[in-house]
């Protein structure tokens, strides 16, 4: 498991028995639960949503209500979605690293 995916920030207390929804982060397979937002799914398995494009600091969203734009994440197709207001869908593939920077 990649070092930056080593600790989850959210603890799931509810909806633990909902159907699993598979997704990937940088090619690593995870699963969320039906009804998760992208932010809940990612923060339940990692310690960040993304790195700041300005400081490289980890970011995890701020307002959690769709008002601040701190939670945009990038899909493998290049599309960016607001994690706190976007429902998790099966097979979403999130990219947190720029290709060619590894
Ligand atoms: S956390 Fe502010 S818009 Fe998502």
Considering the chains and any ligands shown, give keywords for the structure.
mainly beta; 102 residues; binds FE2/S2 (inorganic) cluster; globular; Ubiquitin-like (UB roll); 26% strand; two-stranded antiparallel sheet; five-stranded mixed sheet
Structural notes for this entry:
The chain is mainly beta and 102 residues long. It has a single domain (20-95), classed as Ubiquitin-like (UB roll) (Roll). Helix content is 6%, strand content 26%. The protein is built from 1 helix and 7 strands; from the N terminus they run ββαβββββ. It has one helix at 38-43, and strands at 20-25, 28-33, 50-51, 58-59, 72-75, 80-82, 92-95. The protein has a 5-stranded mixed beta sheet with strand order 2-1-7-5-6. Strands 3-4 form a two-stranded antiparallel sheet. A hairpin with a 2-residue loop joins strand 1 (20-25) and strand 2 (28-33). The model has no long low-confidence stretch (mean pLDDT 87).
